[in-house]
Amino acid sequence: MFTGLVEGMAQVAASVFDGVGLRLTLDLRELSQGVRIGDSICVSGCCLTVVAIELSQCMFELGSETLSKTNFLSLKPDAFVNIERSLRVGDRMGGHFVTGHVDGLGELQRRREEGEWAHFYFSASKPLLRQMVPKGSITIDGVSLTVVDATDEMFSIALIPHTLEVTTLGQLQVNDKVHLETDILAKYVQRAIAPD
């Protein structure tokens, strides 16, 4: 379980696709402190398991299901990803409950700057958009955010300067794809009221 409060960014050290799965190596730098093999780490919104560690570099293995829902195959060496280590019992809860299970991809359609702030407008699939409401929670590339507006075609968010600076969201350009995880409460409500 995660909160969507990104702890920092990690750099891609290596990305090797063998035709079936992807071996992704990230340099977590100081965030590698205390990480062990088998730990779950939220990498740009996707819960991945550490399978090997060498100094500050951690390796992850991504299977076909993960690759079908994410844009990890397009990651290049030296690119950056958002990192959050898993929530520990007793930690303060900020953000919202994030499972690290990416529901699908969104695409940045428009970026409107407002001084040091920014407003982003994303397209997404209709099933995902139906799980979004204004002032509800959304996770974009692992970052817990509040939906400003949501329609059948698009949703928007407003980003403060801090978030733009300390996460990969500040680097996003129009047509870039992002990992989306809708609020888990929306999924349960939708399932409960779905016709039999």
Task: Outline the structure in words.
There is one protein chain. The chain is mainly beta. It has two domains: 8-85, Elongation Factor Tu (Ef-tu), domain 3 (Beta Barrel); 104-193, Beta Barrel (Elongation Factor Tu (Ef-tu), domain 3). Helices cover 13% and strands 42% of the residues. The model has no long low-confidence stretch (mean pLDDT 94).
Structure characteristics:
196 residues, mainly beta, Elongation Factor Tu (Ef-tu), domain 3, six-stranded antiparallel barrel, 12 strands
- Which descriptor suits the 3D outline? globular
What is the terminal-to-terminal distance? Answer: 30 Å
Structural class: mainly beta
Order of helices and strands: EEEEEHEEEHEEEHEH
In what range is the share of β-strand residues? 35-45%
What is the architecture of the largest domain at the second tier of CATH?
Beta Barrel
Output the strand order for the largest sheet.
1-2-5-4-3-6
Main pleated sheet: 6 strands, antiparallel, barrel
pLDDT < 50 runs, ≥5 residues: none
Total domain modules: 2
Structure summary, number of beta strands: 12
The CATH first-level class of the largest domain comes to Mainly Beta
